[in-house]
Amino acid sequence: MKISAVIVEDSRLARNELKELIKNYPDIELLGEAENVDQGFELITKERPQLLFLDINMPEKDGFQLLEMLDEVPLTVFTTAFDEYAIKSFEYNALDYLLKPVSEKRFAMALEKVKLKLNSISDPNTNGQKLSEGSQIFIKDGEACWLVKIGDISHFEIVGNYTRVFFDDKKPLLYKSLNQIEEKLPEQSFFRANRQQIVNTNFIVNVVPWFNGKLKLEMGNGEEIEVSRRQSYIFKDKMSL
């Protein structure tokens, strides 16, 4: 399995060192490199790599800001000369944290983590605009940060100009409209229940007939979601044999 990767690093020397390490791994396909966050954002948005080697301390914007700009976040291995960022990097769910200069042994260990992670994700590399259930999105709510797999989200709900995301026992807010989110979700597993909510059908444990031809969905996390009358007909058709 080829692993597509990009490097975002402001130091040319550090980029060259990473490229030399990557040459020893024919299963890694380097799609490109960038020397700052804005270039990195354009590169990642265009190429949609599975793996990102990311420097933290860069001029103007840092590596953490790049992750916050992305709709879909690749598996991320931070590369930095400063160990002071280690704790914060894992708040961003980084897969690994490499101190420069990066040794061959330490690089090999990081790649082993990458391969194990990719093997645990179904269809990690989405080639179109739609996300897959295995795709990850970055969510920052206040000081808390998460990298969340789409398939682990039970439902989305409008809250003013924000959208609340439900996964595990968390309910952070995402500064995107529900319509923006719906455009990217995999249609086979996500359904627009009403104007305010989108549900992951994999989390539905019971469907209850409701008033005026409507349905009520009981979710695995205890939430109950009412489906509008129009969407109830569509839901029945979609979920029927």
UniProtKB/TrEMBL annotation:
Q: Which PANTHER family match?
A: STAGE 0 SPORULATION PROTEIN A HOMOLOG, TRANSCRIPTIONAL REGULATOR-RELATED
Q: What is this protein called?
A: LytTR family DNA-binding domain-containing protein
Q: What is the lineage of its organism?
A: Bacteria, Pseudomonadati, Bacteroidota, Flavobacteriia, Flavobacteriales
Domain HTH LytTR-type, by residue range, is: 137-241
Q: Does the keyword Phosphoprotein apply?
A: yes
Record InterPro entries: CheY-like_superfamily, LytR-like, LytTR_DNA-bd_dom, Sig_transdc_resp-reg_receiver
Keyword NAD on this protein? Answer: no
The record places domain Response regulatory at 4-115
Molecular-function GO terms, alphabetical: DNA binding
